Amino acid sequence: MNNLAALCHATGRYDEAERLYRRSLAVKEKLLGGEHLDVAMTLNNLAVLYKSRQKFEDAKRLYRRALAILESRLDRLTRNSRPVVKTTNVCNWK
Question: CA dihedral in degrees (19, 25, 27, 28; nearest 10)?
Answer without folding.
Answer: 160
